[in-house]
């Protein structure tokens, strides 16, 4: 691939992160998560519990099916078609949130859209991540992965900023506030944003080369290959241990993303508008961290970058459980978020470095998604249970720090040689 062509394809690939981040930040984390718990659900405690259950259901489904879809794609090809299908599922689910009215009659509609949209987003990322080994030279692997995550954070920031300025705060369209239309419109807005900025990937990024078997044969071959991989996985010490570690600390990250805005509003009394500003500020910090420490990934290695970031997340998380001053909360949370992006980007590049056979990259990223989701229901479930049991969100958030610390410890024995292969 020529240098100018590589720049174009990498930029198009990064724009998909830019596009999909709108769903993560607006639907899963800030606007609709907060709107559901405060306006749709019976009350904040019950709403937190229901939102946790819905994300847990989505996580279980993603964990069960993402490796299988990855294996099928490796044998049947058509990676872009699979990516398009699951992208469309997330887009349509986002658009349907227009009907999430501010009353308890909309609870199940809202939660159904959340489950389907989250499945679409996360399974699409399995196919999206599989393009990274093809696009990134070894010496730039960490940087390109970091640029992708950085693009996602920037895109998320801009999408959230538009939602805040145009719809929520100013209501430039003059929508009916009694029915929360200025908030519900954010669902269709995400659908449009996601669609527009994902188009360059489908047009400009070359498809992955693989066998093109008919779908029934691909399903059978994919299932058998996945089963063989799972059986031999315990003998692949480095990859197996990494997937276990990733399973644990990703659970902490997922819980933090889902309940970050809810925690800020419920524990520190941030208003709805302040939660949106909090989301923008925190994503700026996370984006800066992802881009800046992407160079560290290529310099000292993905493993060291992930461990360093997890240690910082754990240490900075402790004051957030104890503080009561809103200003102090903002300051510490800003520092904490500097290390969120590097964990994500370096985790993805570490997986690439550990994959020796690019022919099964989609399957392996399916297992990567599995490790990030197989216990994803535990984090939100524990958050909800601890919140209900102690009648405080601080108890729920304390569980997140345990996931970070244990995940970092399990990374220590993993061996990655200088060439990036396990």
UniProtKB/TrEMBL annotation:
It comes from the Bacteria. Pfam families: ATG22. It is a multi-pass membrane protein. GO terms for cellular component: endomembrane system. The keyword Translocase does not apply. InterPro entries: Atg22-like, ATG22/LtaA_families, MFS_trans_sf. It is found in: Endomembrane system. The chain crosses the membrane at residues 12-36, 48-70, 82-101, 107-132, 144-168, 180-205, 239-263, 275-295, 304-322, 328-344, 365-383, 395-414. Keywords: Membrane, Transmembrane, Transmembrane helix, Transport. This is Major facilitator superfamily (MFS) profile domain-containing protein. It comes from Aquicella siphonis.
């Amino acid at each position: 691939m020529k240098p100018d062509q590589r720049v174009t394809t990498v930029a198009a690939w990064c724009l998909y992160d830019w596009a999909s981040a709108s769903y993560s930040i607006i639907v899963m984390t800030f606007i609709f998560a907060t709107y559901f718990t405060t306006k749709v659900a019976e009350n904040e405690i019950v709403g937190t519990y229901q939102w946790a259950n819905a994300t847990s259901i989505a996580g279980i489904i993603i964990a069960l099916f993402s490796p299988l879809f990855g294996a099928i794609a490796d044998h049947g090809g058509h990676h872009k078609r699979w990516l398009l299908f699951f992208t469309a599922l997330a887009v349509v689910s986002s658009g349907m949130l227009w009907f999430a009215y501010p009353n308890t009659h909309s609870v199940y509609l809202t939660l159904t859209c959340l489950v389907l949209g989250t499945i679409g987003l996360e399974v699409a990322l399995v196919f999206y991540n599989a393009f990274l080994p093809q696009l990134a030279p070894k010496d730039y692997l960490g940087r390109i992965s970091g640029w992708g995550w950085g693009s996602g954070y920037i895109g998320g920031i801009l999408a959230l900023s538009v939602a805040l300025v145009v719809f929520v705060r100013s209501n430039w369209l003059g929508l009916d506030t009694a029915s929360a239309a200025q908030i519900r419109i954010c669902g269709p807005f995400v659908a449009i944003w996601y669609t527009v900025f994902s188009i360059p990937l489908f047009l400009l990024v070359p498809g992955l080369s693989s066998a093109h078997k008919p779908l029934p044969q691909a399903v059978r071959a994919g299932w058998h290959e996945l089963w063989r991989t799972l059986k031999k996985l315990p003998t692949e010490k480095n990859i197996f241990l990494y997937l276990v570690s990733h399973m644990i600390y990703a659970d902490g990250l997922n819980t933090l993303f889902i309940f970050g805005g809810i925690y800020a509003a419920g524990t520190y009394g941030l208003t709805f508008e302040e939660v949106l500003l909090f989301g923008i500020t925190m994503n700026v910090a996370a984006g800066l961290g992802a881009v800046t420490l992407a160079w560290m990934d290529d310099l000292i290695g993905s493993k060291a970058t992930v461990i360093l970031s997890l240690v910082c997340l754990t240490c900075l998380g402790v004051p957030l459980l104890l503080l009561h001053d809103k200003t102090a909360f903002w300051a510490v949370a800003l520092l904490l978020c500097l290390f969120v992006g590097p964990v994500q980007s370096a985790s993805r590049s570490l997986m690439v470095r550990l994959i020796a056979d690019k022919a099964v990259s989609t399957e392996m990223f399916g297992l990567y998604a599995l490790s990030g989701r197989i216990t994803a229901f535990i984090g939100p479930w524990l958050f909800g249970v601890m919140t209900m049991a102690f009648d405080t969100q601080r108890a729920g958030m304390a569980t997140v720090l345990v996931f970070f610390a244990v995940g970092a410890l399990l990374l220590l024995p993993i061996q990655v040689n200088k060439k990036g292969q396990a």
